[in-house]
Predict the 3D structure of the following.
Amino acid sequence: MLLFKNSGIFAPHILTTIMNRDSQIFDLIKQENKRQLDGIELIASENFVSEQVMEAMGSILTNKYAEGLPGKRYYGGCEVVDQIETLAIDRLKELFGATWANVQPHSGAQANMAVFSAFLNPGDKILGFDLSHGGHLSHGSPVNVSGKWFDANFYGVEKETGLIDFDKVANQILDLKPKLVIAGASAYSRDWDYAKMRKACDQVGAMLLADISHPSGLIAKGFLNDPMQECHIITTTTHKTLRGPRGGVIMMGNDFENPFGLKTMKGVTKKMSQVLDGAVFPGTQGGPLEHVIAAKAIAFQEALSDDYTDYMKQVKLNASVMASEMIKKGYSIISGGTDNHSMLIDLRSKDISGKVAEAVLGQAHITTNKNMVPFDDKSPFVTSGIRFGTGAITSRGVNANEIVEIVDLIDEALMNAGNDSKLSAIGQKVNSLMVGKPLFATPVIG
Ligand code: DSN
């Protein structure tokens, strides 16, 4: 039986029981299903998983405790989940050309936390991309444990270009001599010079971590610079461009012994991978989510396929068309365009805040998020910007011609803030555009 495909109905094997036994939750899932199906999803960190990824997450694997690693568990009965987790690790290593991976982190923030707890002591200096320029909370923000426990310092973009000047970042690394440097962002639409950052890190004995959560799918398929050899450690979420279940992973291109002079309390030399494995469990997490790990394994296999390469190509094309169409309509894009799936739009030239833009687009069933722009004069709750990404809509089969239509709808909505009847009419146009597009556009595993 076809599940959601082309129909928008529920996957019966998962939801009929909920329908019969918990109508309150069922009704709410149904409402959310309609919201996702009817609308245009432009949140850059979201995507639509395949039916097989969804099924794995709803499977009986959730019943199993499996603290430890495959072959080295603290519970009996792990012989099957050991094979699942091993497959996930092997597929991930193949996808990114990694030599070591841990697939247990529950999220990207947990993956980063494990790296910090493996190699840093409270008070150590770290250097990350400024949250207000497009960075991530877990890279040293004062409201996050990474900013509370460590001496967090930041690099940003240039005011004139909206670009990171990697020569300046290298000089900052040399001056600051941090213990850990983080390359990665939530809202930066250009590529990263990992090699330049690594050279500076090597000069001061710093560790370089790439958090590739947003562009990981594009990196896996060779559409962006590859951090695997340049960075000591790579973390990513699995649910953004990678189109897997919500979760995180940690990878390395090269494992080595006695990293950065780090020894255990008894003075025993360890490999970097051992330290990282221990930092995930028991360091910062308990039992792994084997149902999610199975879903990760399925998503990694999908990402190894040629269909996924085509999907990534289309994501990138759709993003570049969206950026140039927005520019044609007089919007300002930070850095003037995009190399990846995302873009950050500075709305100050249109005299509308990010908060209002998010709400107005929401009325027209276009989902986005307000976002600070570099050197923003508004608070994080208001903001001057809005962020778009094309990962999710491309999964639903939106092509470049439709992107042109979508930008027309976005502009029409933003120019009609406060006009409820007009916004409702635009919402209907959005619904008509999306109605034939299934939530599960993923081809079968290739
Ligand atoms: N910061 C979120 C985002 O990029 O949407 C993810 O953690």
